[in-house]
Design a protein that fits this description.
The chain is an all-alpha fold. Helix content is 50%, strand content 0%. Helix 5 (89-104) packs across helix 6.
Length: 155
């Protein structure tokens, strides 16, 4: 793995997931429970600022589905990301990594055909990230100009 490349974090607990989302959704900002609760309210959900603070403190580990949905609204992700043993954690992480690479210019554009209003499916995002990593690996292994000799695949 290259220096500076983001490794997918281990997100097992609710607290880890919420801390990760705070970091990625509000980079460089300190978000209070009150600010987050107001954001959830603006988006049509309900979450008390003290409950959010208790999640961040690790005091809440098994919230109701309504609370998980409120977290999803606040962070703009599928609420199932916050469930235990969530199958969408990897998809959300891949999506965030994709967006980060888009912001830094590592990915300049992507076109998809037949997409619905939900955009790219997580599997396609993961595939695009793997192509980018493969291309980066080939670039490092190729000659000075980054190209493989004619007729030979880059390694």
């Amino acid at each position: 793995m290259d220096i500076g490349e983001e490794r997918a974090p281990e997100l097992r607990t609710l607290r880890q997931k919420v801390e990760y989302m705070v970091e990625k959704t509000f980079p460089g900002q300190k978000i209070s429970g009150r600010v987050f609760a107001d954001l959830v309210k603006e988006r049509g959900g309900a979450l008390s600022h003290s409950y959010f603070s208790n999640i961040l403190a690790g005091k809440v580990t098994q919230p109701s589905e309504d609370i998980l949905k409120a977290l999803g609204l606040g962070f703009g992700v599928d609420w199932r990301f916050f469930k235990e043993e969530s199958e969408v954690v990897d998809d959300v992480v891949a999506g965030l990594q994709f967006l980060a690479k888009r912001r830094t210019g590592e990915i300049s554009g992507l076109a998809g055909r037949g997409l619905d209003e939900d955009g790219l499916p997580p599997e396609l995002l993961q595939f695009a990230l793997s192509l980018l990593e493969d291309a980066r690996g080939r670039q490092g292994a190729a000659g000075d100009d980054g190209a493989a000799p004619r007729g030979e695949p880059a390694k």
